[in-house]
Amino acid sequence: MAHWVFRKFSRKLSLMVGVILVCAMALTDLLLTRALRRQFIDEVASNLLVQADLIEMQLRSKTFSKKAGGELQSMAKQYDRTCDCRVTFVSKDGAVLADSSLTTDEIIRMENHKGRPEISTALAGSPGHSIRYSETIRQDMLYAATPLRLNGTVHGVVRVAMSLAQVEQKIAGVRKTIATITIFMILAAILASLWMSRSISQPLAEMSRIAEKLAQGDYSARVRPRLPDEHGQLGATLNLLAQKVQSAIHALSQEKAHLSAILSNMTEAVIAVDETGHVLAVNPALTRLFGIQPQECVGKPFLEVIRNNRLSALLNIVIKDSTRQQDEVKVLAPEEAVFEAQAVPLLMEERCIGALLVLHDITRLRQLEQIRKDFVANVSHEIKTPLASIKAFAETLRTGAIDDPANRKEFVEIIEKDADRMMRLVDDLLELSSIESGRRAPNFEPVALAECAMAVAASLAPLADRKQVRVDIRIPDNLPLLRADNGQLRQVLTNLLDNAIKFNKDEGSVTVKASANQRIVTVVVQDTGSGITAENLPRIFERFYRVDKARSCELGGTGLGLAIVKHIIDAHGGSVGVESKPGQGSTFRFTLPTAA
Ligand code: ADP
Questions:
Q1: Is 197 a pocket residue for ligand 1 (Cβ < 6 Å)?
Q2: Staple 160 to which of 44, 52, 419, 513, CB 3.0 to 4.6 Å?
Q3: H or E stretch at 114
């Protein structure tokens, strides 16, 4: 019950008002009853005295002795009826002569009244009154007595008495009225306080609801506008607060969205750790690179996420010294990769609260650098051999062989052959570099494969004839035209057919086939040559890669033919592949899009 009352301000206020009013009214009742009783008694006492005086005036001529008792008794009864009071006559020695509420026998048995306060005062010559419980009629009585004078001396006492029950009745009447008014007033006060407290608590309840919504993250919640009183001001302040929080949250979330968009779209891997080295955040590039889930990283120690001691040490230095650090780090898992790591301290009010690590993947850059180095080494090596040969034979000629008719022709032929080899090498290198750099972008046109293949086969006929290799072009008549650069397609077929003839057995055969499937044409160049071993197959399209270098050189190869094929096919949007079994020949296939 108490809980139910104290849960609402309006109930508390009404209860308080009710209790205060009840207390106030009880106090008023107490004080008022006392004052009223005093006033009523004074009033009744003076009335009784007036009546006693009037009776006394009428009794002055009467003998006031026991002898006249009978007459006095009937007079007392008569006055009692007239005044509605108990009337008593007392002689000057205190004996009761008559009493309107007693019978004659009772009067005789009455004790002397000289000691009664009002009687003794009256016998002394002054009117007096007193309140006493009357054993005779068993009630609280108000007695008023006045001396009966005859020729200036006191002959007896006239006493008039009234039951206080009448006074109490009057007071009870007044109290009843007051109680009725009080109940109405308390009810009215409770209703008024309920109404008032509601008008206070309702806006407060609404504001509390709005504050709760704000606390739950609904920043659009607003208090209804009110009169500009205290509630209105409080509501307006709450609305202003909500608006400020909303715009601050909006600005923060926008900033966060920008930041996360930047982080998400960064190609660099980013990871933030706190001062204890536990991961705070990672970006998608990092999770992609290291093959991990974002939720698996946050909160974990750095080394558990990226198992690399150098990176961990780098972060430790950054956190310890609050300085930025940079390093090139090789990571072995999940794939071997080289990163340029930049680590910066995360500072808040001059205090280092963590570190941010940015990993820039430079694997490709390092690979390209290596390729470049290898390329330079390969080219130098390829050129060095014919150059050394040319120099040696030129020297031999200069130092006398020029006059030796038997050998000089052969020496000059060797010089010419080596120069040709260098020329071919340079041509192939230029070709490769122009395709790679995009300077020789394919000039796409519809090309008939059969025509192109026939022309290439015709140009290679002397080579094929020398080895007695049969070149078979089996291209269907209905094969769609290809979307290709005619010159570059020729180059591809020349390189493939040249190899297929060169590395073929004597009296072997080369077959060129083609088939179309949905807008893709697959071209196959099949030979009956020596074939390529499985370990060499994956590297066959690399520059300068040759299975048997001596044989390739002898056959006039540069090791660039297949690299050129791959580059041209890539530039055409196709793919190239090879299947081979040593001793059973090789099958090279490439795809190209159709023209339509
Ligand atoms: P090369 O100038 O040596 O022919 P390529 O790039 O054309 O250079 O070929 C690279 C190597 O691949 C050759 O040296 C050879 O060992 C091997 N190869 C290419 N085509 C064939 C083939 N049809 N049969 C066997 N081996 C081949």
A1: no
A2: 52
A3: none
Does the C-beta of 574 come closer than 6 Å to ligand 1? Answer: no
Q: In Å, what is the CA distance from 321 to each residue of 277, 316, 343, 351?
A: 14, 8, 12, 11
- The predicted pLDDT at position 204 comes to 83
Q: Kindly state if the Cβ of 576 falls inside 6 Å of ligand 1.
A: no
Nearest-CA residue for ligand 1 atom 14 is 546
Over residues 430-443, the mean pLDDT reads: 83
pLDDT value of residue 41:
84
Start-end of H helices in 340-460 = 363-398, 408-437, 449-459
**If you measure from the C-alpha of residue 548 to the centroid of ligand 1, how many angstroms do you get, rounded to a whole number?**
9
Atom in ligand 1 nearest the alpha carbon of residue 498: 4
Binding site membership of 532 for ligand 1 (Cβ less than 6 Å): yes
99: which 2 tokens? 């009493």
User: How far from 381 is each of 376, 386, 562, 564, CA to CA, in Å?
Assistant: 8, 10, 19, 19
Closest ligand 1 atom, residue 540 Cα: 12
The structure's pTM equals 0.51
pLDDT at 2: 58
- The C-alpha atoms of residue 60 and residue 83 are separated, in whole angstroms, by 19
Higher pLDDT, 209 or 1: 209
Q: Please work out whether the CB of residue 496 comes within 6 Å of at least one atom of ligand 1.
A: no
CB of 559 closer than 6 angstroms to any ligand 1 atom: yes
User: 445 CA to middle of ligand 1, Å?
Assistant: 29
C-alpha radius of gyration, the chain, whole number = 66
203 lines ligand 1 (CB under 6 A): no
Question: How much is the pLDDT for 200?
Answer: 81
Q: How far apart are CA 321 and CA 302, in angstroms?
A: 18
pLDDT of residue 4 exceeding 70 = no
Q: What's residue 169's pLDDT?
A: 85
Q: How far is CA 562 from the centre of its chain?
A: 59
Block residue for tokens 């009357």: 134
From 445, 515, 446, select the one nearest 477 (Cα to Cα).
515
Closest Cα to atom 20 of ligand 1: 499
**Mean pLDDT computed over 540-567:** 85
Segment holding 299, helix H or strand E: none
First-to-last alpha carbon distance for the chain, in angstroms, is 90
What is the pLDDT confidence band of residue 385, given thresholds at 50, 70 and 90? confident
Q: How far is the CA of 458 from the centre of ligand 1 (A)?
A: 21
pLDDT digits (tens, 9 = 90+) for 267-310: 899 999 999 999 999 999 999 888 888 888 889 999 999 889 99
- The residue whose CA is least distant from atom 23 of ligand 1 is 500
For residue 66, what pLDDT is reported? 67
Kind and range of the H or E run holding 293: none
